[in-house]
Amino acid sequence: AIQNNLLYVAMSNLDGPTCAVLYQLKILTTAVFSVTVLKRQLSTTKWGALVMLFVGAACVQYGNSVRASTAESVGDPMVGLIAVLSACCISGFAGVFLELKLKDAKASLWLKNVQLALFGVVFGMFGAFYKDGEAIAEFGWFQGYSPAVWAVIFDVSAGGLLVALVVKYADSIRKGFATTISILLSTLIGVMFMGFSLSMWFVTGLVLVLAATFGYIQPDAPKPKPRNAGVV
Fold first, then answer.
1. What span, in angstroms and rounded, lies between the C-alpha atoms of 38 and 32?
2. Please, are residues 202 and 187 in contact by the beta-carbon 8 Å criterion?
3. For residue 9, what pLDDT band results from cuts at 50, 70 and 90?
4. How far is CA 161 from CA 107, 151, 174, 177, in A?
5. CA 1 from chain center: how many Å?
6. What does the pLDDT look like over 58-72, one tens digit per residue?
7. d(Cα 153, Cα 1) in Å, to the nearest integer?
8. Per residue in 71-85, is it b (16+ CB within 10 Å) or e — as a string?
9. Is a pLDDT exceeding 60 seen at residue 170?
């Protein structure tokens, strides 16, 4: 909830492309928290791949935001910058903390999902009643729930379960790779079925993301064994 509110403040004070690019810094903040909180070691090659992933994701998001942007920001750029950087830090820490809890928990993955979802339900209900309380009281909670809306709900729910599985059996950094690749696939689907056109930003981002993914999954070079000081 805090992260979403920060993003709202950021988008109110920054133009769309700038906000989209800066928010991709969550890839690097996730890596930093993985090292500091989980004591995970990343080689120079993996750090390079993460930086390349950030640049690739930023290129794709920048191209998409430029196409969708229709108005300039009229807010305070410094406030927007602080808000989006704070959202990146919260996103990175939340992802790593979720990984820590899922991997160390004795409870099942399903029970953990229910426990974590309760917080979202509470905050979501407060927001719903604050914004649409009168409409809910008059027309009921499920007003406007068409089959398409239910399909989206189940799709998002399945996606949330898949994210939990990725975090539990892989890690938060690989989740970042998967999220970026999903953005690429969504854009490609838009090109094939919705008449979108490929921009140079997207092609550049695609190449960088694929190169970063290939570089990250490569095994680290073995460390040289120390020489035995007693051998002459």
1. 10
2. yes
3. confident
4. 15, 16, 16, 17
5. 15
6. 887 777 666 555 555
7. 19
8. eebeeeeeebbebbb
9. yes
